[in-house]
Amino acid sequence: MVFVTEQTGSGGGGLLTFLPIILLFVLLYFLMIRPQSKRRREAQEMQSRLVPGDEVQTVGGLFGTVIDIDDEAVTLEPAPGVAMRFARGAIARVINKQPTEEDVEEDTADDEETGTDSPKRSDEG
To answer: Is the model's pTM score more than 0.85?
Structure first.
């Protein structure tokens, strides 16, 4: 037996056939890929700005103070006298940032502009 299929419409509808797939990939890029690359960039930036004295949390949940930094690793002190070495990528977030010289200079410049030496509390008597 021979089956004959009848073609309806034109054969030039290729773009309309692939349009939903193309739109799906564009949507996937803006909803998943782009935000992930932004988070990765922010994490690398945070890890490159680490300085000794910063209090950090690792991806495993360990809290510690940065005592030494080299190109690929960070040495943390989770307890007095205990030193642990982690890859830079294992640092999840900075808890307390140690002020750098640039931060101190910016605060001094801000105080000079406003004419105050330190913030005053309204409830002090």
So the answer is: no
